[in-house]
Amino acid sequence: MNDLPNRADPARRHPVGAGSDRPVEAAVAALTDAAATRTPCAPVRQYLGTSDIDAAYEVQRRLAQARGAAGARRVGAKIGLTAPVVQRQFGVFQPDFGVLHDDMLYAHTEPLPLGRFLQPRAEGEIAFVLGRDLDRPGPSVADVLRATEFVLPAIEIVDSRIAGWDLAITDTVADNASSGAVVLGTTPYPVAGLDLARVGMTLRREGEAVSHGAGHACLGSPVVAVAWLARELVRREQPLRAGDVVMSGALGPMVPVGGPGRFRLELDGLGEVEAVLEEGTK
Fold first, then answer.
1. CB-CB neighbours of 258 under 10 Å
2. Nearest CA to 250 among 280, 212, 204?
């Protein structure tokens, strides 16, 4: 989708430095306007370049701070770009993360208004719900398993404020890892005895299978993905806390939503969850 190394990108030659806040401010303004007007914007790498990931996370932080000031409550985090098939879809070959807010969470079969999205796509995931903080340096897979209270089947409706999903890593990081909404199943499953790497996934739209995958597509296992996230957030002094919902990453290809309809995710041994997308804005 992207051919970034061959593109003319002046911002890439002039990465954001500590002495300049203008590129970050410009990216914040562009993404804020895109969300408010429901009109996707040009890639923000024109301001940030394609390699200054810290600057992109600063954009993300400011946007999340603004949402918090407007009343949204942080409830967890999401991991993006974990599955090789999704990385190939966008030509971005490293994971990233974003913030989950309370107004992004929906329950099984609860209607989602299509009008809140710009360019929605759906993907099947496993959500972790934590019972303990993960705030010590270098949390391991064992730490993640001990901290996980239960897991849930989940559908993420990913979205992008960047026109045409034309992404470099700095674009998606700045845009809160291309977050949209999350639909959670309602039956919790303990992780004890589960081999999440072997969990098979089928995502259906109106009964037709549109995406297949498995847990091993997610950095080898969703548990490995959550450990990666936990380490990154501790390093950035934003640790995961008890009660957080963590979306562990796609188990297979994301697919366009394409209008109103029902997506049903089936996970081997972890039940099902259904996302219902309807016309409307609220």
1. 12
2. 212
Tokens representing residue 252 in the block? 């297979």
Tell me how far apart the alpha carbons of residues 37 and 23 are, in angstroms, rounded to a whole number.
21
As given in the structure block, the two tokens for residue 105 are 């969470």
For residue 193, pLDDT over 80 is answered with yes
* CB neighbour class for 74 (10 Å; exposed up to 12, middle 13-18, buried from 19): middle
- Cα separation, 16 vs 27, in Å, equals 11
Average the pLDDT over 168-195 and give the result.
95
* pLDDT tens digits along 29-54: 999 999 999 999 999 999 999 989 99
pLDDT band at residue 18 under the 50/70/90 scheme: very low
One-letter-per-residue 3-state SS of the chain: CCCHHHCCCHHHHCCCCCCCCHHHHHHHHHHHHHHHHCCCECCCHHHHCCCCHHHHHHHHHHHHHHHHHCCCCEEEEEEECCCHHHHHHHCCCCCEEEEEEHHHEEECCCEEEHHHCCCCEEEEEEEEEECCCECCCCCCHHHHHHHEEEEEEEEEEECCCEHHHCCCHHHHHHCHHHCCEEEECCCCECCCCCCHHHCEEEEEECCEEEEEEEHHHCCCCHHHHHHHHHHHHHHCCCCECCCCEEECCCCCCCEECCCCEEEEEEECCCEEEEEEEECCCC
Token pair of 113, please? 């208004």
Q: What type of residue sits at position 145?
A: L
Residue 204 CB partners (closer than 8 Å, separation 6+): 210, 263, 264, 265, 266
